[in-house]
TrEMBL record:
The keyword Transmembrane helix applies. One of its GO terms (molecular function) is calcium ion binding. It is a peripheral membrane protein. It comes from Ophiostoma piceae (strain UAMH 11346). One of its GO terms (cellular component) is mitochondrial inner membrane. Belongs to the NADH dehydrogenase family. It comes from the Eukaryota. This is Mitochondrial nadh dehydrogenase. Its main location: mitochondrion. Keywords: Calcium, FAD, Flavoprotein, Membrane, NAD, Oxidoreductase, Transit peptide, Transmembrane, Transmembrane helix. It is found in: Mitochondrion inner membrane. The chain crosses the membrane at residues 146-167. Residues 589-624 form the EF-hand domain. Coiled coil: none annotated.
Length: 742
């Protein structure tokens, strides 16, 4: 290669570099310079060495781009071959094809120039290929990504912490702002009236606290008795501006009852199961009175309310209503058993705290050196009376605590002497569930050494033992069982308030266990459309017996038989009952009872029932049992239904008044009747869970436990309780259960 050619090559590279540097010399000109196939080079004088030659052209390039002619090379009189007029370059010369690479920032011409200059520097005849860039090792790539993720996580956590403290700083207030508050004299000094001449709480103290409450001041007065599942569901469905809402309850919180067994052994904290009722009421701009409902005067539309102060003094007053919702829950059914004062119950947060303290107290007493062996075994004997979901879940939670946490903090001897007993009056536990679910629970308890005593009925509960009768080979045998704690969980019954209402309503109320309502949830016997009852305290009189009789009648006609002369065999009745269960899930308890009552109503012991005997049998069942399960699921559905119906009635009120429609079945005119949809049942059984979902059932180990937790996590009423539940489960996994009594 000649000196001139070598200098030209270096010159070309310098030109391209200059062009890329952006000093005004465009890539188009650099392309024009290199487009010539040859460069006319004359004889080079000895005075012009290669270095001086290069310096001349370098200085020419560094002068000014404006002095460079488009068709001649600086410092030379020879034209550049192939140079022509300036043409605009296509857009792809300037846009990236491979992000992040040098080629993406230059044009194809510039890339060609670099390639040509690299080839020209190689010795003649060299065929060595260009070295490919070495690939990045996968380990280094993974480490770089991992470090990036870790760094990003630290940054995110840091920003979150800073954001929390910034938000937290805004929640503090320095000094209270006192201002004039308008309060009606009737709120501070209520007028007296009613049948007992008590103060009537017409105007609330906080009616004028804000603009939203002022808007509802003159709206229809909706009074809700109770703060359970049904009441909260109504509050969550109501439109905020339709009613003047007042909630009356002896407790100022909503309790998440399905998780109470977990709180008795420290798996969950009690505060994680409660939500302040005032937070829930705030959504509808409502009012709350911490008091107890005593009676209702239907003619005056007044609720009699009582409150006891710290000195034990009781005060009573009236709360007026336009519409009243009774949702006061239920109490435990004693079944006429003596000595229930020696038992624990599990209906509210105080019961859970009492059980938790008693369990820990028994464990501590069993550790004392002065405790005899017999007394130690009695203290460590835990008895559960009732094989329903509450009793089964408490027994499972108690076993898990004793098995997983006891040996970590207490002498190992205690674990060998602890016993858990489950007494059930029926032939299986969880008898309202599917048979496969019940059998799985019994097998699980047998494996965990939980003593299940079926066909056993408690006769008496003494301070240190229970007396019960068990059917053995068809004969009753009386037995006794020492106990340090007995949980009574055997069904529900009416509270005293509901009993007074039922007595006042007379023949309209025939059920001994719950207040009867129609299919629109209106209280039977009360003025139509004024009073509703939902939740455990009520039962919908949907006449399951009539439905079953109608089903059998249609079945007889279908087979060409006269229903009045039809005789039903016991085997036929089982098949009919199976069909009825599919159509009426709420009738499961009734149909289980039919197996026993069939032989009782078979007067001639012929193994058949005629149509009249069948009708009487079903009527007797309807009068004794509630038609719907006393569960949170049922109360929640009823509350949702009633809230939506009240919204629609408020919207339709203007049209009804305009047409002078004041009487009649207004509920039926604006909304459909209530229909219960059984979504399934769940139960926790010792680090496993069972699900009954419609026509199929599922049971399993830890995966089912996580699914069980997820269901209840989603059903929590607020984000606050969800976060607390998650923290409690996380804390149990890290540190175990909290075995502290207080």
């Amino acid at each position: 290669m000649t000196v001139a050619a070598a200098s030209l090559t270096r010159l070309s590279r310098a030109g391209v570099a200059f062009a890329i540097s952006g000093n005004g010399f465009s890539i188009a000109r650099a392309a024009a310079l290199t487009a010539a196939p040859s460069f006319p080079v004359g004889p080079v004088s000895a005075s012009k060495t290669p270095s001086s030659f290069h310096g001349v052209y370098a200085r020419s390039f560094s002068a000014s781009a404006s002095r460079c002619a488009p068709d001649s090379f600086p410092g030379s009189s020879s034209p550049i071959v192939g140079a022509g007029p300036r043409q605009p370059l296509p857009s792809q010369f300037f846009f990236s094809r491979r992000p992040g690479s040098i080629a993406a920032k230059t044009s194809p011409v510039a890339a060609a120039i670099r390639s040509a200059s690299t080839q020209s520097d190689k010795p003649a005849g060299s065929s060595e290929p260009a070295a490919a860039p070495r690939p990045r090792r996968p380990v280094f790539a993974f480490l770089s990504r991992a470090l990036a993720w870790i760094g990003g996580s630290f940054v995110f956590i840091g920003l979150a912490i800073v954001g929390f403290f910034v938000y937290d700083s805004t929640t503090y207030k320095e000094g209270a702002e006192m201002e004039e508050i308008a309060v009606s004299n009737l709120a501070l000094d209520p007028r007296r009236g009613g049948p007992k001449n008590l103060p009537i709480y017409d105007v609330q103290i906080d009616d004028a606290d804000c603009e939203e409450r002022l808007r509802t001041k003159d709206k229809p007065k909706l009074v809700i008795l109770g703060g359970g599942w049904g009441s909260v569901a109504v509050l969550k469905e109501l439109n905020p501006d339709d009613y003047h809402v007042t909630v009356i309850s002896p407790t100022n919180y909503f309790l998440f009852t399905p998780m109470l067994p977990s709180a008795t052994v420290g798996t969950l904290e009690l505060k994680s199961l409660v939500e302040p009722i005032r937070r829930i009421i705030k959504r509808v701009n409502g009012h709350f009175l911490r008091a107890r409902a005593e009676d209702v005067d239907f003619s005056y539309k007044l609720v009699e309310v009582s409150q006891v102060d710290h000195t034990g003094k009781e005060t009573r007053f009236y709360v007026p209503y336009d519409k009243l919702v009774v949702s006061v829950g239920s109490v435990t059914n004693p079944h006429g058993v003596k000595g229930l004062e020696n038992c624990c119950f599990l209906k509210d947060i105080h019961d859970a705290r009492k059980i938790r303290n008693l369990v820990v107290q028994n464990l501590e007493l069993a550790c004392l050196p002065t405790t005899p062996d017999v007394e130690r075994r009695r203290l460590l004997s835990f008895v559960v009376s009732g094989g329903g979901p509450t009793g089964v879940e408490f027994a499972a939670e108690l076993y898990d605590m004793l098995n997983e946490d006891l040996s970590k903090h207490y002498p190992r001897l205690l674990r060998n002497e602890i016993s858990v007993h489950l007494v059930q009056s029926r032939s299986h536990i969880l008898n309202t569930y599917d048979e496969t679910v019940s059998r799985y629970a019994e097998d699980r308890f047998a494996r965990d050494q939980v003593d299940v005593l079926t066909n056993s009925r408690v006769n008496e509960v003494r301070p240190d033992r229970i007396i019960f009768t068990q059917m053995c080979d068809g004969k009753p045998v009386t037995k006794e069982l020492p106990m340090g704690l007995c949980l009574w969980s055997t069904g529900v019954s009416q509270p005293e308030f509901c009993q007074r209402l039922a007595a006042k309503l007379g023949v309209a109320q025939t059920n001994r266990h719950a207040l009867e309502t129609d299919t629109h949830l209106r209280l039977n016997g009360a003025p139509l459309g004024d009073v509703y009852a939902i939740g455990d305290c009520s039962t919908v009189q949907n006449n399951v017996a009539d439905h079953i009789v109608g089903f059998v009648r249609n079945l007889a006609w279908k087979h060409g038989k006269d229903p009045e002369t039809l005789e039903i065999h016991f085997s036929d009745w089982r098949r009919i009952a199976a069909e009825v269960k599919k159509k009426f899930p709420q009738a499961v308890a009734h149909l289980r009872r039919l197996d026993k009552l069939f032989h009782e109503f078979d007067k001639d012991h012929s193994g058949t029932l005629d149509f009249g005997e069948l009708r009487e049998l079903l009527k007797q069942i309807d009068s004794k049992l509630t038609s719907l399960p006393a569960t949170a699921q049922r109360a929640h559905q009823q509350g949702q239904y009633l809230g939506r119906k009240l919204n629609k009635m408020a919207r339709a009120a203007a049209g009804l008044h305009a047409n002078d429609i004041q009487d009649g079945d207004l509920d039926a005119a604006v909304y459909k009747a209530f229909e219960y949809h059984h979504l399934g049942s769940l139960a926790y059984i010792g680090n496993s869970a069972v699900f009954e979902l419609g026509s199929f059932s599922v049971s399993g180990g830890l995966w089912a436990v996580y699914a069980w937790r997820s269901v209840y996590f989603a059903q929590s009423v607020s984000m606050r309780t969800r976060i607390l539940l998650m923290m409690d489960w996380f804390k149990r996994g890290l540190f175990g259960r909290d075995l502290v009594s207080y």
